[in-house]
Amino acid sequence: SGQHLRLRWYKISGEHDAASWVRKLQARGRPPLAIIGGGTSDRAVRLARALQETYPNIEAAAPVFLITTATAENTADDTPLIEVYPRRSFRFSFTNHRMVKSLLRFVQQTPDLWTSKAASEPQPLTMHAV
Description:
Blueprint: H1 18-27, E1 34-37, H2 41-54, E2 64-67, H3 81-84, E3 89-91, H4 96-109
Parallel strand pairs: 1-2, 2-3
Helix pairs in contact: 1-2
């Protein structure tokens, strides 16, 4: 078909932070389809803010933001992380709230995990899919 999809990796560093890369990508004319990042919650917030500052018009062409492993649900000012760059942000990861719910469900479904027959008898640790 003659169409190509290019995946590029841009290193976030002291010299080129998230805002710097977003501006450089915007200067190319056609925005990327997606920005994948947010390895930590702080990085995700910085990247989402840089995207929102660079692409404030929700109706204009702009990349979507695919949040990888950031778990925070809100920023320090209590804004939902997913709303910092609204309607264009998506998560690949669990939020802190979702992880706690999953852990609690596991503990509730595995009551024998927390009981022991005798203090001297080591109990095997078993893993269950959640």
